[in-house]
Design a protein that fits this description.
The protein is an alpha/beta fold. It folds into 2 domains: about 210 residues, Rossmann fold; about 130 residues, 2,3-Dihydroxybiphenyl 1,2-Dioxygenase, domain 1. The protein contains 13 helices and 15 strands. The protein has an 8-stranded mixed sheet. Strands 3-2-4-1-5-6-7 form a 7-stranded parallel sheet, sandwiched between helices. A hairpin with a 2-residue loop joins strand 10 and strand 11. Helix 1 crosses helix 2, helix 2 packs across helix 3 and helix 4 packs across helix 10. The longest helix has 14 residues.
Length: about 375
């Protein structure tokens, strides 16, 4: 364990902040620290707080953190803020609203700029969850930016998702139900002392009566006074106990990215940027001798692969077949369980699970077992 990693494990806030900045900027040294720390993660309770703008999410997170501290729990708050068009950084509204905690070593607050990412999260959010978890935080609370109906990325990352609503929304409750309404483990009706709180609760219960399966809890809160926060904590303690945060989306296996082998990442980027894609991060994966550029494309990504050595797997692929589709990557809720099932059924795997680009754990399935396609199965580092 190097000095930087040791300091983070010992609770050094400056070392943690430095690592968080490096990870957001995809600094190779910070990413290596993340990989070293990943084995210490898996203990924190990851809570997502989402909902429309003006619902009082920041105030509720502030009150929730204070209650957790009274219980002796340590907390990391990842507040996703809009990106400043001037500086490119986060507009630090959330951190300003939480200044009462600045002197508490048991609370670490990090504002993150969306940097153009959609879905309410920043691109490095999952990695920072892993970092905070590995640093020993008992709770990691993620407050999304508050974009409304499409803000569902949080459900893939948090173990428990709280959707915050407020009185006076009226038909807006119906409007957003197709998006964030469907991912809630808990509904928090904040500003419950305002007129219309009972109406919001009635609309929620009417909507939930039409659905099958789980029934999210409904809790009324007044974040400015702390009323109802203990009830919210109680609901949180009983909600969303899953092996991994990603299991909530119906235990879904989804396409994470398409890996494309290229002779030169820089040359290939000219085309992909011309059709509107932008690079989220670049790095070199030493274990595979490959340079990687990730370009988000909706809920999936394009992964450009350039060999850093001619005898690397990607280098040999290019020599044999030339540039083209190298592999398809699927994200699974529980990689270890999936690998065990595949081995039991005689599927041919090409490697033991190990860490790759962006910190995720992966394993390759031989094309002979996957219908002629090289298949990569991954589990994100934030999981």
């Amino acid at each position: 364990m190097n000095e930087w990693t040791r300091k983070i494990r010992e609770g050094d806030a400056r070392a943690l902040a430095r690592a968080a900045t490096g990870i957001e900027n995809r600094d190779p040294q910070a990413l290596e620290i993340l990989r070293e720390l990943a084995s210490f993660a898996g203990h924190a309770r990851v809570i997502g707080i989402t909902g429309p703008p003006g619902a009082g999410k920041s105030t509720l997170v502030d009150a929730l953190a204070a209650s957790l501290r009274r219980l002796g729990k340590t907390v990391a708050i990842l507040a996703i803020d809009p990106t400043s068009r001037i500086t490119g950084g986060a507009i630090l509204g959330d951190r300003i609203r939480m200044q009462q905690h600045h002197a508490d070593p048991g609370i670490f607050i990090r504002s993150m700029a969306t940097r153009g990412a959609t879905g309410g999260l920043a691109r490095a959010t999952a990695d920072l969850v892993t970092l905070m978890d590995a640093a020993g935080k008992d709770y990691v609370v993620i407050e999304t930016v508050g974009v409304g109906q499409d803000e569902i990325a949080i459900a893939r990352l948090a173990q428990v998702t709280v959707v915050v609503l407020v009185p006076g929304m009226g038909d807006d409750v119906q409007t957003i139900k197709a998006g964030i309404m469907e991912i809630a483990d808990i509904f928090a009706i904040n500003k419950a002392d305002h007129p219309g709180a009972a109406q919001v609760e009635q609309e929620l219960r009417s909507m939930l009566s039409l659905t099958d399966g789980r029934k999210p809890a409904i809790v009324k809160t007044i974040a400015t006074t702390g009323e109802g926060v203990d009830a919210l904590l109680e609901a949180l303690s009983g909600a969303g106990h899953r092996g991994s945060a990603g299991d909530k989306i119906a235990g879904a296996t989804v396409i994470d990215h398409l890996g494309i082998a290229v002779n030169s990442v820089d040359a290939a980027l000219a085309f992909y940027e011309s059709i509107g894609l932008t690079v989220a991060h670049r790095e070199t994966v030493a274990t595979e001798n490959v340079n990687v550029a990730m370009l988000p494309a909706g809920d999936s990504r394009i992964e450009l692969l350039e060999p850093s050595a001619q005898d690397s797997p990607v280098g040999k692929f290019l020599q044999k077949r030339g540039p083209g589709l190298h592999h398809v990557a699927l994200r699974v809720p529980d990689l270890n369980a999936t690998v065990e099932r595949l081995r039991a059924s005689g599927v041919r795997l090409l490697n033991e699970p190990r860490q790759g680009a962006g910190g995720h754990v992966y394993v390759f399935v031989h094309p002979a077992s996957a219908g002629g396609v090289l298949l990569e199965l991954i589990q994100e580092s934030g999981n």
